Amino acid sequence: MAAPVSEAEAPLLALTYSQRPERPAQLPPVEDHAFLLLVKEAHPDLEHASQQHRKRGEVVHVFRDRVSSEFTVLYQRANGRHTVKESGYPWLDRLNQLAGMWQATQVPQRGGAR
Fold first, then answer.
1. How far is the C-alpha of 11 from the C-alpha of 55, rounded, in Å?
2. Do residues 87 and 70 lie in contact, with contact meaning Cβ atoms separated by under 8 Å?
3. pTM score, two decimals?
4. Please, are residues 74 and 57 in contact by the beta-carbon 8 Å criterion?
């Protein structure tokens, strides 16, 4: 199901106000710059924007495919009660899949100099 024209043309952060249903979610490490670089490499047509809302204690992350206009809005909350809104394609599932692969390849840092 393609996103309605108004959502396809809306600025990314305006999608936080879409009327899509919001549900609880387990979020990928969207605060990690290295992970976001992996997302960009794996999905070059996926736009990303984020905005911090200090008063609400959350950071909003919006991802939208430039080709299909499908999007996901991730609400990363300080209290741990994260949620998601999606337009149809399960971008959250794909991002979490990438996160799992990315985390499996991370080598723990060893402390101390030799």
1. 22
2. yes
3. 0.86
4. no
